[in-house]
Write a structure and sequence with these properties.
It comes from Vagococcus allomyrinae. This is ABC transporter ATP-binding protein. Keywords: ATP-binding, Cell membrane, Membrane, Nucleotide-binding, Transmembrane, Transmembrane helix, Transport. The protein folds into three domains: 313 residues, ABC transporter transmembrane region fold (Up-down Bundle); 131 residues, P-loop containing nucleotide triphosphate hydrolases (Rossmann fold), CATH 3.40.50.300; 79 residues, Rossmann fold (3-Layer(aba) Sandwich). 66% of the residues lie in helices and 10% in strands. The chain has 17 helices and ten strands. The strands form two sheets. The chain has a six-stranded mixed β-sheet, sandwiched between helices. Strands 2-1-4-5 form a four-stranded antiparallel β-sheet, with helices on one face. Helix 5 packs antiparallel against helix 6 and helix 5 packs antiparallel against helix 8. The longest helix is centred in the first third of the chain and has 55 residues. The chain is elongated and about 120 Å long. The two termini are 70 Å apart. The relative contact order is 0.08. Bound molecules: adenosine-5'-triphosphate. The site of adenosine-5'-triphosphate has 15 residues, from helix 9.
Length: 580
């Protein structure tokens, strides 16, 4: 951490140089009032105080206090301003990193943990480079200046004797260092787990209630909070111990100093003014030592947070490096004997996948639940490392060769779980293409069969949909997501079971619209309802990760396999529904 901080400080030499300069000046100035007091008392004791030099003493006293005030303001503001800038820089950096990491990374880290890294960990880092830096510069320079001035203006013997307990303090801190580090990390991880629990509770509160699990969850949460409390208590004990040891030893230092200076006065080696000044210096030194004891705690907290942020910044998602090939149209997609295994699984999920899809065609992907349909889509989206067994080619080139952002820009993806932002309906749709005009917006909404729904909403497109779209229906969420993909006019549209929550009539209308507006573009429709792919050019039947059948819907019906049986069952269900 210190190395990284040092590099950051070197990148901002003016700011940190100014802060250090004014901190040192301020520490020096802080000693002046005390020097004046010492002179003042000695003048009284010697009977040398005149109204003239009293005026001078008071003026210097006042001026030095004003100067301390101004220098303190300058350096504290400079330093803390920079620490806030550091925090926002770190937030931007980590956010960018998170945006670039893909699925395998997000499978390793939990949301609560990432939130803790983005919030309190970055706050602690800012505190360390701001407040921590301030503690070091001010207290170290202060302690050194006090010791020097004590030696010069009072008694070097008394100063040396008084400083001895401080050496002991340094040794105790050194012994406790590792233990405190472990405690901070432990405490921080428990808080991160707690954040995760809260996030899951907020997401799942309705299910918890529906299953009558409120009490059980409450008890579980209480246990977690008790664990956090226990960890925090351990920390409090150590933090408190360090502070109390600092107090005890500074008290000891004062006692030794006073006893010894009493002895020096009896020997005529010290004046009363020097004794009083010495006592004030000792008080100031205690302040500096308490400040230094705070550094231990700020540093440890910062160090733990630094490790967490660094781990995130260094994280790899094990995906291959981005390709350099640019792409402005998807004309042909080819899977050749492609196999895929999830990094966490022991068996292959996709087996010998082989098919070709040309521009303008619609591909249907159907099959039993858990057979591997979504996994197949994920390969095109490059959410996982491309397998080395078999190939995926786009326009005749390996998919890995393309610049991912360019490729993603040509795809409109509607995932199974709809991800909506807690903004307006309009914002969520426009997210697909910020530059779309009103006509394009209306077209996308119409094609997603969403126009009537919007006309029924109180604020139309300006209607707020709540967090994750909580205030609109499942079917509406799906259509907002479809409109968002359509407004993009993507070369490749992928609907991954995206019509499961709409009725058969609405599904028919959306599929017809897509066929009409996307004649020269490519579509992949993953579905459980065969009616959605009845007019596809080609349909893949996936079974246990392999293509069990493929062909046009008519060919598949003729071959009387799984597609035929499923088609007949679904037709009967439709008839039964119509009779109700
Ligand atoms: N991230 C993952 N890590 C490990 N295994 C996974 C992961 N995602 C899916 N699987 C496994 O891969 C297999 C195929 O899952 P996939 O989601 O592709 O099926 P699917 O055909 O789309 O299912 P459904 O129709 O229910 O959506 C399943 O056995 C599933 O448990």
């Amino acid at each position: 951490m210190l190395k990284t901080f040092w590099q950051y400080i070197k990148q901002h030499p003016v700011i940190y140089g100014l802060a250090t300069f004014f901190a040192i000046v301020s520490s020096g100035l802080t000693l002046i009032p005390n020097l004046i007091i010492q002179r003042f008392i000695d003048a009284i004791v010697d009977g040398a105080l005149t109204s003239e030099n009293l005026g001078i003493i008071l003026s210097i006293f006042l001026i030095s206090i004003i100067c301390i005030f101004i220098t303190d303001i300058i350096w504290v503001m400079t330093l803390f301003g920079q620490s806030y800038r550091y925090q926002s820089e770190m937030r931007r950096k980590t956010y960018k990193k998170l945006l670039n990491l893909r699925t395998p990374f997000y499978e390793r880290f939990r949301s609560g943990d990432l939130m803790t890294r983005m919030t309190s960990d970055i706050d602690y880092l800012g505190d360390t480079i701001g407040y921590g830096f301030m503690l070091i510069v001010s207290n170290v320079t202060w302690a050194i200046s006090i010791l020097i001035i004590m030696i010069i203006t009072t008694s070097w013997k008394a100063a040396t004797v008084s400083a001895l307990p401080l050496v002991l303090f340094g040794y105790i801190v050194y012994r406790l260092w590792k233990k405190i580090d472990v405690l901070y990390e432990d405490n921080r991880d428990t808080v991160a787990k707690l954040s995760n629990e809260v996030l899951e509770m907020v997401d799942g509160v309705r299910v918890m209630r529906a299953y009558g699990k409120k009490k059980l969850e409450q008890t579980r949460f209480e246990k977690r909070t008790a664990a956090v409390l226990k960890k925090a208590n351990n920390l409090v004990v150590y933090n408190g111990a360090i502070n109390q040891i600092a107090k005890l030893l500074t008290g000891l230092s004062t006692a030794i100093g006073l006893t010894y200076s009493g002895y020096l006065i009896s020997q005529g080696q010290m004046t009363i003014g020097q004794l009083i000044a010495f006592q004030i210096y000792l008080g100031m030194l205690s302040g500096a030592i308490w400040g230094l004891s705070d550094i231990v705690l700020v540093y440890q907290q910062g160090n733990v947070s630094f490790r967490k942020i660094d781990e995130l910044l260094q994280a790899e998602d094990q995906l291959e490096k981005n390709g350099e090939e640019t792409i402005d149209a998807i004309n042909d997609i080819q899977f050749n004997q492609y196999m895929f295994q999830y990094p966490t699984n022991e068996t292959t999920t996709l087996k010998q996948i082989e098919f070709e899809l040309k521009r303008g065609e619609t591909l249907g992907i159907v099959g039993k639940t858990g057979s591997g349909k979504t996994t197949l889509i994920r390969q095109l989206l490059r959410q996982y490392p491309v397998s080395e067994t078999g190939t995926i080619k786009i326009n005749g080139r390996f998919i890995q060769e393309y610049d991912m952002e360019k490729l993603e820009g040509l795809i409109g993806y509607v995932p199974q779980e709809h991800i909506l932002f807690s903004k307006t309906v309009g914002h969520n749709i426009r997210f697909g293409n910020r530059h779309a005009d009103e006509i394009e917006m209306a077209e996308a909404i119409e094609s997603a069969n969403f126009t009537t729904d919007i006309s029924h909403m109180a604020d139309g497109l300006e209607t707020l949909i709540g967090e994750k779209g909580v205030s609109i229906s499942g079917g509406q969420k799906q259509r907002v997501s479809i409109a968002r993909a359509l407004i993009r006019k993507p070369d490749l549209l992928i609907l991954d079971d995206s019509l499961s929550a709409v009725d058969a009539k609405t599904e028919r209308a959306i599929i017809d619209n897509i066929r009409t507006i996307r004649q020269d573009k490519t579509n992949i429709i993953v579905t459980h309802r065969l009616s959605a792919v009845a007019e596809a050019d080609k349909v893949l039947i996936i079974d246990d990760g392999a293509i069990a059948e493929q062909g046009s819907p008519q060919e598949l019906l003729r071959s009387k396999g799984w597609y035929y049986t499923q088609y007949m069952t679904q037709q009967m269900e439709v008839k039964e529904d119509d009779n109700i």
